[in-house]
Structure formats: C-alpha cells, structure tokens
C-alpha cells in the first residue's frame, strides 16, 4: 500500500476518505474515551492530529508509543474542523515502524540552540530547524530559477585546486600524504604538488563567459580561518554568477533583482515557515522582508560612506578613516541606523580588495561593491573584473602573487578579453537575513568550525 | 547601450531592426565587396553571420581581427534568409573589445580531445565542449526540477567529514598541517582530528528523512583512487536522494522515472546540442535516447544475471561466478548484448556491498540495485537501507569498521527508525550516455586526476 503524504491528504483529501499514511509522533495525549497523537511526516511544518478509540485494541499500541516513534496507519479522514486542526484522522489500523528509545533527546520542552548544535543529525525534527532547512531548500530553488530564467549556464567549478586563489592564505591542504609520518614531499602526493580546497570558484569560472556569456557556479567554498564567531564556518555555500558585457551599475541592478526575487519566492513558497520565524525567531521579520523587496536599495560610494560615518564618530569604538576600512560596527551603522535597508557600497580602495578587480581611473579605487544587509553585514561581494591584460598582470605582481600560477587566468585577457563582472552570494548569510536566525551554525546541516567536524 | 543576446535577436528580432550585440569571432572571410564574420556570443550553439561593406571604414577594423577576438557592434538585422543562415547582421558600427593574440590555440582546424584537455579554460569555445557543458547545465536543471516537483528537500551534505564513510579507504585527507615538515599530530590540526573529503553524502543525509521524509544532496564527491581510466576522476558530482517509507521496488520505479525525465528534458531543452552529438559524436544517439525513454528498463536479480552470463562463458576473459561479481565485460554483455537497454541488477551478495544495505531474508544478499546503462555501466547505485538497529550494528562490526564513528548514524535506527531507501546518480556517467562523450574528463569543466589539478 502506497504511503500518502500528510501534505497531499491536506490538499486533496475529502471528508470520510480512507487514508494510509505514516510519520513520527510529536505529542501524545490520553483522555477518557480517546487517545490523541500528533503526527509529523516532514512534508509540511504542521502536524496532523490522529485519534484512537480507547475501547479498540489499538489503544494498547498507543500505550507503547514514545515521542519520536515512527508509525504507519490507516484511518478515516475528518475535514472541516475548526481551530488549529483543519483535519484529523480517526485511526482504524496502526503499525509501529520504530519505537524511539527512552533517551530520545527531543522531549516536550524547549531546547537551546547550543544544545541542539550537539545533535545536528536530529535537530531537523524540531520546528525551528525543520523550518530553517526547508527554507534553505526553497532559497536554493529560487537561486536556480532566477539564473535559469536569465539563461545562465551552470558550471561546476572544482573544489580541489592548485591555485592559491586570492592569496589570502587560510586555506586547507588536501593530501594523500600523512603528516603524522616524518617529512614527506608534495611531489609524491596524489596531485604531485600542493593542492588546496577552493575558496572561490570565480577564477575557474571566468574563462567560461567566453563560451556562454552568462555562467555561474554553486557549491561549497572553504576557509581555514580559526575564527569561532557566529558568522564564520570552515565550509559554506556560495553562488557565483559571472557575466560578459556587464559593468558595475548593471550588475548592481541584477544583484538587486536577484536578491529580491529570492526573498519574494521564499515568502511565497515557505509561508508557514515564514510565519513561524515571525512569531518565534525575529518578530517583524515578515514586515522587514516585504519592505526589503518594495524599496530600492541604497547605493553609496565608499568615500561617501566614510564621510557620512565621520559625522557620527562618537558612535564607534574605532572611528572611520579612509585607509582603515569599514569595520562591522560601521557597516551596521550604515544599514541599521542611516539607511535602514540594504546598502550597496561601491568603489573601495584597491588596497582593501582582490587583485582581479577593475582599477578605476582615479588609480586609487576599484570597481567593486559589497551589498550590506541590516544586522548581517556583507551578503554579496561583487566587482567588475580587470579585463586589461597589462593592468591585471601588474596587479598580480603588486599583490605579491606568483605570476606562473595565474598564466592560464591571464589567458582570458589575451584571447578576446571583454568587459565583465561577477558576484558571490553567501547563501547562509542571506538565509540568516530571511529567517532571523542569528548564528550561521544554525542554518547549516552539519557546520564545520575549528575543532569540530563530527557527524 | 544594453547588449542584446544573439539568442534574443534570433527569437524576437524583426527584419530591418537596429540591433546592438557583442561576441567572439569564430570565422572571418573576405570577398570582393564585403567581408563576413561569424559571431558567437554563448547564448546558443550556432553562430550569426555579420556582414561589413568593404568600402566603409569598418573594413579596416575587420582587417585587424583574429579568430577568438571579441567585438561589439551595431547593425541592421536581415531575417528570412535561406540555408544555414536564417538571419544576418549588416554591420554599421564596430568596436574591438579584445583582440586575440596570434597564439590563440583554437584555430580553424579540428583539435583532438587530448589536446583540448590541456586547455580546459578554453575548450568551451569549441562547438563540442560548448555543447557538452550547456547540456550538463540543462541536465542539472532536470535533476533539480524532478526533485522539487516531487517535494524533495535539498540538504547540502558537508564535503568535510571525520567519518571514514564506507570504510573503502581511497580518501583525501584535509589538513592545515604541512606534511613537508617533520612529524606532526592530528590533534593539533584544524579539526583536532583526522578529516577527510567526503565520498558520499548519504550517511549525513539519512537522518534528515525523519525531518522531511524525502531529501537529497547534490554536490561534489571525492575519491583518491589512483586509476587513470576514462571512467575515473578524483572529483565528481552526484545527486543522492533518500526516501522514507519506500522499498526497493518502488525506488526502482522512481529511478526509472527520474532518469527518463532527465533524458526527455535534455532532448527538449538542448535540441541543437543533441543534433550536434548525433552528427559528430555518436551517430544514432538520438534514436538510442528516444528508445531509452519509451521502453521499460530490464530488471533482473544478480543471481539470475550470473546464470544468464554463464551461458555465454566463452565470450568473457574472466568467466562469471556468483562470488566473483560482475566485471565490466559482464555488465556490458547484459546491457549491450542481452537486453540492449538499461538494466537494473538487484540483490547482490552482501560481501560485495556496503554495510548499510538491507540484509535480505536469505542472509546472503542485500536489497540493493545497480542500474547499468549500455556502454557506460553503472550509472545509479541504490539500496534499501538496513533499518534494524541490531542488524546494522552487527554489519558494521562484520565489516571491520569502528563502531564509535557510527554511533550518531546508528541513532537513526534508535529514534523512530523506518523503512527507507536511497540512491546516487553519478551525473558525469549519465551525461556520457546522453552526449556520447567517451571520456569522463571531457564532461567535467576542470577534471582532477592523479597528478593533475592544474588550472
């Protein structure tokens, strides 16, 4: 007998239908004549009430059930009910698939997020994390839709690289050697040289614009930063689009349209989850998101931003200077206090940014922008790329990078170079903005942080 | 001025429209009164003919152009032409974005796939690889659609793991230690223990069925196998769905529906590319694929397969035995000679398969299936999972694995276990079947193989 989903029953079931379904017990309650349990099968956030007649033999089965146990059942559907339960199932047959042992960690009380982080394999069985991970899935669908609808070709950039990407250090080595043995040589390693986990797919992606014009990569990126904060993890996902014949202004239009599309799509396709976040995680998040998609984002140059912030010098631990860059407190002041919405900051000092960004005519700034979101900070990093071969080569040298490593990348500028731009969206950060979840560890299935990659 | 795509012009342009577009030069030809060049902008496989009047000043610009160079232009659209060119553009203005240096490797001749593998960053600029990578992108869209339409929740399983997955060895270590230095301790490493690149997302994914019922992961997987064959790479992508309340038979129905959906979607959405493959890569591939989606796949048990193959013992270098397993030549005989279509082989000897597969009542076989495709071999690996706690624990011990490592995985069987099944599709292998490309290195943007992770 095929197991119907509770979502399908909810959407197309009729009163008095016989249904066959299955799921996990969220609560059990016994009264004089009947027993109730709430069933959750993962196809929707809400549970379905199931009723068992205490005079039936099934009542004894109910007595054996514990929270978290898995059952299959056949029953009669009752619809058109009031209040919390729009439907319930009157159970006629009940089979136990799996009893949950007594030490099932998710008992009927509120558990702290810290505690739930110690059981990442179980936390999707709580309402909060069930809502978070379904919303994450819907957010990725929005990303895929937007890029497909705009004719982007999906290239999977490799996770393994021998290019030390942006020269930022903080990379993981990958090896088949064993560092616990004595001195070995990378020449004997699997790739016959030092290999790393990629920090970005951008460099690998850029050459593909000359084949497809608009391309993107979407996969995991890695940072070996020993930062134990609510914003840092060693493995995260980013989507990185790259576009030929697009400059900074047009790219900002695209970024704004894309992030607004993602938010709108999520609001529409995760309505129960979004109400849940608004009620339990961040009061007012729905209103915030509706405002975000309705108003144009602010756009301000880095130099203007510094000037505006200098007017509020007494608000900061570290006052702003042009050379000093925007610290977190400055970014938050821009988004949370001055503009109260997402802000594009453009044209950063070139010393603060990567070698591949377009050097502006002033020779001091680059054609880059960070999109900052209230409370979150940078969610999108973007730039027009330096398409001039000689300038790019000069920048690689200036930044102290190894020219040999980048010969193939420089090829892009030798064989039909063109104006092009690209950006990266850290999906965990955008997801934090959408859900109101404060810690990045709570929007990743199995977060990897210093000293922690169990499970 | 916004740059129009050649695809958009082709679809909605009218005769005598003024158009503004850009792209890369594929061929140049000069005749007495006019010059012609073929422009490719990546939005479609075909090129667009552009015509320049030799009496205009633009003729001198054309004289500077080389193959691979990038230009922008404004021109008048001529439609309704015959033959290969349904439209052409009469150029009125022409700007050079980037000249291709004389050593541009893709000159007007046929290059071998071996040679093109040495320039992975440029090969999408050839027709073959342009068709391959666009088809790959469309194939991933088909996967996303099928799973979204069937209410699967997308969980990103981590690439970094400290679980030695299936105990198969052949894994990459990831580390912030330096093996070129003397003896070090993994206790000092970033994760404070030995960490690996994941060979499968399955173990991390399984617990999420109790939150969502149907889930999947889709990302890179890694193998440190030192096999230099046309079928092996160190980094590849697989999609791994996992479903509660589904057994082997129903899962085979789902796998058959999903692979047929992917092929049908690709035929529909990459029509030009598929004609190209049929003409230049594998004659008859279109007919083959149409047959694949129309006929039911064969289903045969492992034991039956061995019997059938024993009838043809003289066809094989290594004759089949029940204990010896199905070698490549045996698999190919099943798909290419006996059935001439995809074949599900089910119920393999448990010694040949992983610890997490359902032990059948005969105690000798497991509820697993490999889906074999003609010429390619295994494209999908699948099994009903062993949901019984005690049996699973016993299997872990039998396979000589460390029980401590799998305690969290065993939790799934202690806290509301249920019948469940899952499978993995290696997308490169399916893509080889669809495109006719013979070498896995030729369907991956930047293939990683022993001794090779440049670019």
What's the topology here?
The structure is a homodimer of 455-residue chains.
Chain A: H1 6-12, E1 18-30, E2 34-40, E3 48-53, H2 58-64, E4 70-79, E5 87-98, H3 113-117, H4 127-149, E6 153-154, E7 160-161, E8 173-175, E9 195-197, H5 202-205, H6 209-212, E10 214-222, E11 235-244, H7 248-269, H8 271-281, H9 285-294, E12 298-301, H10 302-310, H11 328-339, E13 343-346, E14 368-373, E15 377-384, H12 389-398, H13 407-414, E16 420-426, H14 427-435
Parallel strand pairs in A: 3-5, 6-10, 12-13
Antiparallel strand pairs in A: 1-2, 1-4, 2-3, 4-5, 7-9, 8-9, 10-11, 11-16, 13-14, 14-15, 15-16
Helix pairs in contact in A: 4-7, 4-8, 4-14, 7-9
Describe, in plain words, how this protein is organized in 3D.
The structure is a homodimer of 455-residue chains. Chain A is of the alpha+beta class and 455 residues long. Chain A has helices spanning 6-12, 58-64, 113-117, 127-149, 202-205, 209-212, 248-269, 271-281, 285-294, 302-310, 328-339, 389-398, 407-414, 427-435, and strands at residues 18-30, 34-40, 48-53, 70-79, 87-98, 153-154, 160-161, 173-175, 195-197, 214-222, 235-244, 298-301, 343-346, 368-373, 377-384, 420-426. In chain A, the strands form 3 sheets. Chain A has an 8-stranded mixed β-sheet with strand order 6-10-11-16-15-14-13-12. The longest helix of chain A is centred in the N-terminal third of the chain and has 23 residues, at 127-149. Chains A and B meet through strand 1, helix 4, strand 6, strand 7 and strand 8 of A and strand 1, helix 4, strand 6, strand 7 and strand 8 of B. Strand 8 of chain A pairs antiparallel with strand 8 of chain B.
């Amino acid at each position: 007998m095929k197991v119907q989903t509770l979502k399908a029953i909810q959407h197309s079931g009729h009163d008095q239908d016989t249904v066959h379904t299955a799921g996990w017990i969220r609560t059990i309650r016994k009264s004089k004549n009947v027993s109730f349990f709430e069933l959750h099968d993962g196809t929707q956030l809400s549970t379905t009430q199931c009723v068992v007649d205490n005079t039936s033999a099934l009542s004894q089965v109910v007595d054996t059930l514990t929270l978290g146990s898995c059952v299959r059942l056949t029953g009669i559907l009752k619809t058109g009910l009031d209040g919390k339960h729009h439907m319930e199932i009157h159970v006629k047959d009940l089979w136990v698939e799996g009893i949950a042992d007594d030490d099932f960690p998710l008992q009927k009380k509120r558990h702290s997020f810290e505690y739930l982080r110690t059981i990442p394999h179980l936390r999707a069985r709580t309402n909060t994390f069930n809502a978070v991970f379904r919303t994450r899935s819907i957010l990725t669908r929005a990303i895929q839709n937007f890029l497909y609808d705009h004719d982007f070709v999906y290239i999977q950039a490799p996770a393994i690289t021998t290019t030390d990407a942006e020269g930022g250090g903080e990379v993981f080595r990958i090896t088949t050697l064993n560092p616990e043995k004595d001195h070995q040589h990378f020449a004997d390693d699997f790739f016959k040289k030092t290999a790393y986990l990629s920090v970005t797919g951008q460099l690998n992606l850029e050459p593909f614009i000359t084949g497809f014009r608009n391309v993107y990569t979407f996969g995991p990126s890695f940072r070996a930063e020993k930062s134990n904060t609510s914003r840092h993890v060693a493995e995260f996902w980013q989507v990185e689009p790259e576009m030929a014949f697009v400059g900074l202004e047009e790219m900002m239009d695209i970024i704004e349209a894309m992030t607004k599309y993602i938010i709108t799509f999520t609001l529409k396709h995760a309505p129960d989850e979004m109400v849940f976040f608004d009620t339990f995680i961040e009061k007012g998040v729905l209103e915030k998101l509706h405002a975000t998609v309705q108003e144009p984002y602010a756009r301000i140059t880095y130099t203007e931003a510094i000037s505006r912030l200098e007017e509020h010098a007494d608000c900061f631990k570290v006052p702003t200077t042009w050379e000093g860059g925007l610290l977190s407190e400055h970014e938050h002041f821009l988004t949370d206090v001055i503009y109260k919405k997402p802000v594009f900051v453009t044209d950063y000092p070139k010393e603060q940014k990567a070698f591949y960004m377009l050097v502006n005519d002033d020779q001091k700034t680059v054609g880059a922008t960070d999109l900052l979101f209230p409370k979150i900070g940078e969610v999108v990093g973007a730039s027009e790329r330096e398409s001039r071969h000689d300038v790019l080569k000069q920048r690689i040298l200036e930044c102290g990078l190894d020219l040999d490593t980048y010969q193939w990348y420089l090829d892009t500028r030798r064989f039909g170079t063109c104006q092009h731009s690209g950006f990266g969206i850290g999906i965990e950060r955008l997801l934090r903005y959408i859900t109101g979840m404060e810690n990045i560890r709570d929007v990743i299935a199995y977060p990897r942080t210093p000293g922690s990659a169990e499970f």
